[in-house]
């Protein structure tokens, strides 16, 4: 097989894999009256923007909440996991190995169970249906991952660099802030990207902890849409397209960080 | 000024230098407190829920009587238990089998480094990055009985349309198909990076010995990839056991529990009905944790062994 044939096969396979994504975009432009057309319209030739108009009219507050929750989760996750990663990688605390083990196990706990525990606690504290509560819950998805990424990355920072800062009279915190953090930019980007994406995509915590709140994220916006008007699939799919924008941007702008993040937990070389 | 400041700060720093442990734990403290407050405590609350007899009233007031393992007995006797167990096993097993096989085939294909291969491989990540509700609702519409594009494709090749989401005999298959689609990218990326670690000299030697492509895969690639494969499968297993979103959004575990797994059953008991049964819901959740942690421990052991 020569290279050109392989490229051809690769394109066909990718097209098959991405067909559902294409279909989502196609349906988002389809007119209500054509939605149950037989055969289905394969191209949005006589498309409509009704769906997107509905998004602008109805879904903007949901998108705003998701953006806020996503950014909050990023800040909380980085603030918690970067110092911990530094400590585990360079300061060698007694019991650090046990903590790494706990973090690995924490990643495996099903979200639905965390959600139930959080629900019981939030109900008692009266913080159900709040964006802050959602940030806190969403961060539990990303913090263990964040610590593991920071630990792995910071282990690779040469000790000479840190010792040089110490000789210059910098304390541990100063060294962390002025030397370690700046050279860990890649790890910060990777952790932030995933923390944002997971918070943005979260449905489990949103539906259990924020199901009746005044500020709900976009995942619930779509969920209510599916529940309420089963007919307006162009509006549902248009919302889905908008909700996919962060993932798409991420893939275009930060591809290498994404691949690094996917393999980080699984394979160590 | 700066020098004076540095001089006066020096004595304060001295004890830190004497006990580096202090600094190490100061940096860890936020995460440790966080883990106790937002991991351990919710898990403890969940365990507590499963050991008490809760009603909506006592859930709010917090004075539910201790009932031992009653909730666990309740769910074991429940008619949903064995079907949910079976669905969890089938959902996880079939998803993994296809995700892994397809992911492996694609990884081997993309490892051949043809023109555009890096770009196409990146595009394969899209399903994994999309919010699950986006994928689940797209699949719901594609699998719609009357107007879905899947049934249209079946009709056009002469196969009878299927009631994917509304028939009890197809609902589980439908959610498995959507889940396989979502899981392929993860398998592809991890197995691909495993393939990259195999030195190309080994392939060259095999090619010199006259091994065909098929032989090279089974005799060289597959054995060398076994540790990475085991880790991919175990991690996939832990992830798949806890899948909730896709099933709940596509079928709500129905019709008549035909696609209910432990994850959706637990949610349904706690949140999906008019009269919440928090105790049994938490009990199902704890069974799920035990299953996940068993395979999680296996995964960590595997990974440790690979590193050393």
From TrEMBL, chain A:
**InterPro entries to which the protein is assigned, alphabetical:** BP-dep_ABC_trans_perm, MetI-like, MetI-like_sf
Tell me the PROSITE patterns matching this sequence: ABC_TM1
Which CDD domains does this one have?
Answer: TM_PBP2
> What residue intervals traverse the membrane?
7-25, 67-89, 101-122, 134-157, 178-200, 233-254
Which GO biological-process labels does this protein carry? transmembrane transport
Where does the ABC transmembrane type-1 domain start and stop, copy by copy? Answer: 63-254
Where found?
Answer: Cell membrane
The annotated topology with respect to the bilayer is: Multi-pass membrane protein
Its GO CC terms are: plasma membrane
* Key words, A-Z: Cell membrane, Membrane, Transmembrane, Transmembrane helix, Transport
Q: Which family does it belong to?
A: Belongs to the binding-protein-dependent transport system permease family.
Among PANTHER family, the record links this protein to: INNER MEMBRANE ABC TRANSPORTER PERMEASE PROTEIN YCJP, MALTOSE TRANSPORT SYSTEM PERMEASE-RELATED
Name of this chain's protein: Sugar ABC transporter permease
From TrEMBL, chain B:
BP GO terms, sorted: transmembrane transport
| Membrane topology (UniProt) | Multi-pass membrane protein
Asked if the keyword Transmembrane belongs to this entry, the reply reads yes
Q: Where in the cell is it found?
A: Cell membrane
- Superkingdom in the source lineage: Bacteria
Segments forming a coiled coil: none
The ABC transmembrane type-1 domain extends over: 85-299
UniProt xrefs under Gene3D superfamilies: MetI-like (1.10.3720.10)
Q: Which residues cross the membrane?
A: 22-41, 84-110, 122-142, 170-192, 224-250, 278-300
Q: Could you name the Gene Ontology cellular component terms for this entry?
A: plasma membrane
PANTHER family per the record? BLR7065 PROTEIN, SPERMIDINE_PUTRESCINE TRANSPORT SYSTEM PERMEASE PROTEIN
In the record, the note on similarity to other proteins reads: Belongs to the binding-protein-dependent transport system permease family.
Specify the protein name.
Sugar ABC transporter permease
From which source organism is this entry?
Paractinoplanes toevensis
């Amino acid at each position: 097989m020569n290279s050109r044939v392989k490229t051809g096969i690769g394109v066909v396979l990718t097209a098959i894999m991405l067909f559902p994504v294409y279909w989502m975009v196609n349906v988002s432009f389809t007119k209500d009256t054509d939605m149950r057309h037989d055969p289905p319209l394969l191209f949005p030739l006589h498309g409509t923007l009704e769906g997107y108009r509905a998004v602008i009219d109805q879904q903007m507050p949901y998108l705003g909440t998701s953006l806020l929750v996503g950014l909050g989760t990023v800040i909380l996750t980085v603030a918690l996991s970067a110092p911990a990663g530094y400590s585990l990688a360079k300061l060698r605390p007694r019991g650090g190995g046990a903590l790494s083990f706990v973090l690995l196990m924490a990643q495996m706990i099903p979200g639905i169970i965390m959600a139930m525990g959080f629900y019981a606690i939030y109900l008692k504290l009266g913080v159900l249906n709040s964006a802050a509560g959602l940030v806190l819950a969403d961060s539990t998805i990303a913090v263990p991952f964040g610590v593991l990424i920071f630990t792995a990355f910071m282990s690779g920072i040469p000790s000479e660099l840190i010792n040089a800062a110490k000789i210059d009279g910098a304390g541990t915190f100063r060294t962390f802030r002025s030397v370690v953090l700046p050279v860990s930019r890649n790890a910060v980007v990777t952790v932030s990207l995933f923390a944002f994406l997971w918070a943005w995509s979260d449905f489990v915590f949103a539906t259990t902890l924020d199901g009746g709140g005044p500020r709900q994220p976009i995942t619930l916006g779509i969920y209510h849409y599916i529940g309420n008007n089963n007919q307006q699939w162009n509006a549902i799919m248009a919302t889905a397209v908008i909700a996919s924008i962060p993932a798409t941007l991420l893939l275009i702008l930060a591809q290498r960080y994404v691949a690094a993040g996917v393999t980080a937990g699984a394979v160590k070389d | 000024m700066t020098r004076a400041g540095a001089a006066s700060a020096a004595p304060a720093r001295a004890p830190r230098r004497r006990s580096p442990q202090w600094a190490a734990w100061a940096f860890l403290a936020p995460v440790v407190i966080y883990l106790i407050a937002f991991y351990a405590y919710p898990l403890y609350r969940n365990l507590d829920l499963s050991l008490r007899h809760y009603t909506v009233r006592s859930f709010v007031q917090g004075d539910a009587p201790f009932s031992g393992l009653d909730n666990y007995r309740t769910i074991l006797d429940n008619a949903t238990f064995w079907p949910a167990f079976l669905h969890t096993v089938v959902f996880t097993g079939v998803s993994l089998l296809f995700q892994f096989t397809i992911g492996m085939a694609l990884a081997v294909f993309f490892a051949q480094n043809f023109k555009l291969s890096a770009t196409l491989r990146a595009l394969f990540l899209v399903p994994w990055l999309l919010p699950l509700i986006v994928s689940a609702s797209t699949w719901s519409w594609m699998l719609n009985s009357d107007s879905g594009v899947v049934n249209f494709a079946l009709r056009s090749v002469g196969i009878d349309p299927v009631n994917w989401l509304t028939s009890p005999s197809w609902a589980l298959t439908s959610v498995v198909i959507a889940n396989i689609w979502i899981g392929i990218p993860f398998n592809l990326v991890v197995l691909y990076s495993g393939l990259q670690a195999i030195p190309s000299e080994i392939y060259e030697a095999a090619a010199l010995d006259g091994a065909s492509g098929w032989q090279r895969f089974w005799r060289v690639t597959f054995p060398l990839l076994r540790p990475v494969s085991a880790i991919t499968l175990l991690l996939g297993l832990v992830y798949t056991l806890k899948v909730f979103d896709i099933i709940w959004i596509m079928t709500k575990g129905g019709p008549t529990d035909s696609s209910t797994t432990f994850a959706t059953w637990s949610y349904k008991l706690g949140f999906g009905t008019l009269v919440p049964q928090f105790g049994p819901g938490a009990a199902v959740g704890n069974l799920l944790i035990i299953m996940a942690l068993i395979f999680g421990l296996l995964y960590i052991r595997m990974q440790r062994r690979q590193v050393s």
